[in-house]
Fold this sequence. Notes:
Layout: H1 2-30, H2 33-40, H3 44-51, H4 54-83, H5 91-103, H6 115-124, H7 128-152, H8 158-177, H9 179-185, H10 195-219
Helix pairs in contact: 1-2, 1-4, 1-6, 3-4, 4-5, 4-7, 5-7, 5-10, 6-8, 8-10
Amino acid sequence: MTETVDTVRDTKERILDAAESLFARHGFAAASLRQITADAGVNLAAVNYHFQSKEELFVAVIKRKIEPINARRLALLDGLESQLPDVVPSLEQVIRVFFRPVFEAQLLGVELGNFPKLLGRFYSEPGERVARVLGDAFGVVLERFGRAFRRALPGLTGKDLAWGAHFMIGSMAHYLAAGEILKFMSRGQVDALDTEEAYERLVAFAAAGLEAMASAREKHA
């Protein structure tokens, strides 16, 4: 029985690994199930059995990496809010909790690998699957963190927050996917592998951006 369970798990993981690589390189539309099954060393029936369709497989690829990170985000936010039951956490504290699990992905058993490039493909191929994945994988996180951001920065409107979350996630994904560009732009002065410096600068950038949005709106109100 154990061997059967292990075999099923191995088959699913091989399919997910192959799909992640091909979706990242070619995008959802161009990556074919034939390519995926060939790279995974399985037949089409295995994909249909485990994932039912190409779109379901795409959703599973995204959620495999996002769900452990989001679970850690929520746990950290719970801890932050429980430590300060009578104090509203600062904007920077909430942002740190939001970004930290991404920089600790390996500790969570998540190998980012092709995932940053996959996210880029994901956002550049809009459609119903984007809304579905965002709702499934980010719904609770966006709701919880949205409340935390607005408590930390009362001047922030829902519209401000939508823009801010979009830019925050975008800047994080760009850093993860484009380390070589950062190295080129800095003429070698920046070590893109220095994750702690990247983390600190990303937090500072996001906090300043959200504060600027709120203050800019107030100036033009």
